[in-house]
Design brief:
With 271 residues, this protein is α+β, with helices and mostly antiparallel strands. Helix content is 51%, strand content 20%. The strands form two sheets. Strands 1, 3, 4, 7 and 9 form a five-stranded antiparallel beta sheet that branches. Strands 2-8-5-6 form a four-stranded antiparallel beta sheet, with no helix packed on it. Helix 3 runs antiparallel to helix 4, helix 4 crosses helix 5 and helix 5 runs antiparallel to helix 6. It is globular. About 8% of the residues have low confidence.
């Protein structure tokens, strides 16, 4: 029997209510709105050649990710879910779980001895649709299939969705901001917070621009490649600023790979 069907009663009685309780201020995380779309059993083995010992730092396409340990941490060394913001691995005992937004940077921490088993559950919410992320996911799948033209269209939709989401959020903040009282100095502080939040939202779309610039150049769309390259360079500069004086931002390595591929492709075109 498929694992999704076996999980049905447990999801309704235990897991979804637990997610709602953990995120009481997030309406989209209420149990009736959560929809499980993928469940995967993870196996990290330190002494097996074919099995992985970890996964790199990444984000999920899910609204919410839940990781359920299937064996006790005493059975292995290392392991756990690495949370970038915490700069540490979380290793709950069997019978517990870790729930976080899919956008949280996380990883499967390396197992150094024994074998770690875990169940990864990925949820969407019927109250929340991240159109930018959905188009991005479809674009990446099309790239893997070698369908660059179709991927380019999906990623353009992704960029537009992120741009519209950022504009809507900015309009909402501008509507709320005048209601906040305080001195002129307070106003400057609010403006700085708004600017930082807007930069964070633009960054979502600028991630897409790195791939788009490469794709457009591959397809001979030189002007479109140059347009998206400028936005992508701003994203790289932001990641480099965030990486100064501390841990490197987890997105920087991938961004630099995209940038290197773009520069090499531009050099080839110029010859």
């Amino acid at each position: 029997m498929p694992i999704l069907f076996r999980l049905g009663p447990i999801l309704a009685r235990r897991i979804c209510p637990a997610i709602e309780a953990a995120f009481p201020d997030t309406r989209e995380a209420q149990a009736p709105f959560l929809r499980l779309y993928q469940a995967t059993v993870l196996r990290y083995a330190a002494d097996a050649v074919a099995a992985p010992v970890s996964t790199p730092v990444h984000q999920d396409f899910a609204f919410m990710t839940v990781t359920v340990p299937l064996n006790d941490p005493a059975e292995y060394m290392g392991g756990g879910t690495w949370i970038h913001e915490l700069q540490r691995a979380v290793r709950p005992p069997a019978g517990h779980a870790i729930a976080h937004s899919g956008r949280v940077w996380h990883a499967g921490h390396p197992v150094t001895r024994g074998t770690r088993y875990a169940l990864a559950l990925f949820f969407h919410s019927s109250r929340f649709s991240d159109h930018g992320l959905r188009f991005y996911q479809r674009g990446c799948a099309l790239i893997a299939e070698g369908r660059q033209s179709e991927a380019c269209r999906e990623l353009e939709f992704s960029f537009l969705a992120y741009k519209q989401a950022a504009q809507a959020a900015r309009a909402q903040r501008q509507h709320l901001l005048p209601r906040v009282g305080g001195s002129a100095g307070d106003g400057e502080g609010h403006a700085l917070v708004v600017e930082e939040e807007e930069e964070e939202e633009r960054a979502e779309g600028q991630v897409v621009c790195g791939i788009l610039s490469n794709l457009h150049l591959q397809l001979g769309n030189v002007a479109e490649s140059a347009r998206t390259e400028l936005l992508f360079l701003k994203h790289v500069e932001r990641l480099q600023r965030l990486s100064q004086g501390g841990a490197q931002h987890p997105a920087l390595a991938g961004a630099m790979q995209n940038l290197d591929a773009l520069m090499r492709r531009k050099s080839t075109k110029a010859l």
